[in-house]
Amino acid sequence: RIVYVNGDYLPEEEAKISIFDRGFLMSDGVYEVTSVLNGKLIDFPGHATRLERSLGELDMASPVSMDELLAIHRELVSRNEIEEGLVYLQITRGAPGDRDFAFPDPSTTPSTIVLFTQNKPGLADSPAAKTGTKVISIEDIRWGRRDIKTVQLLYPSMGKMMAKKAGCDDAWMVEDGFVTEGTSNNAYIVKGGKIITRELSTDILHGITRAAVLRLAAEAQMEVEERNFTIDEAKQADEAFTTSASAFVMPVVEIDGVTLGNGTPGTVARRLREIYLEESLKTAI
Ligand code: PLP
After folding, report:
1. What average pLDDT does the chain have?
2. How far is the CA of 105 from the centre of ligand 1 (A)?
3. Which of 95, 151, 191, 258 is buried deepest, with most CB atoms within 10 A?
4. Which CATH number fits domain 127-283: 3.30.160.620, 3.40.50.300, 3.40.50.11440, 3.20.10.10?
5. What is the pTM of this model?
6. Cβ(30) – ligand 1 distance below 6 Å
């Protein structure tokens, strides 16, 4: 696999990062994941815009322009012959040559930028989308700026393991009784045909797929309500689903052992997945 590191395209075995990189020592960095379908990038402008916002919130500058970033994405997709898969991008606050809590001077410590592809044939035709997924609920004990897409992913990673141990696919995180989001996706329920999802705030990541799906739902005359919902309300919903760049719209059929509807993906989730895949392919670049 050919990867990109600080201006160079290299075989992955030749890529090198300093042990003093603040991404490695302090999770001081941000990332984006963009999916690739038919060899093209899905929702790229949304991911680029969110990246700029994440960087700005952490007082970091991008080492490349957004146009260059698009060119790097395309180059990697092409060199690695990705038809279906993902492009992972990470920018960290560089390697100051020692460990210190204070941010280094950006004029002497340039940020580190890394991109790599993940080949995932069949990404759009996922079996999980046909059967639906099972989630458990766990307490949300992450930090308070979940709107910044940082590489600080230990708790979501632990949540995923708790779900696996329970024989489930993922965990929905709950704060004060209300669902925030999944470990790596935004969470939705459907009741009486109405799509309900938590409103945007610093409590959750502002999903790029979420924005697209809510816009498409409104265009399809589906009713959408952005409000907090409790985990108890979720267990009584007609259906549930999640959205993310890597799994698109994913139906949820069980929460904490409680089966939703008849235990198969709901009509709203299935329709949204179809519309999203169709529309995002049209605007893929
Ligand atoms: N919420 C969290 C915590 C995530 O990690 C992600 C994706 O990685 C999402 C939501 C979904 O965001 P997007 O649709 O931009 O992939």
Report:
1. 98
2. 30
3. 95
4. 3.20.10.10
5. 0.97
6. no
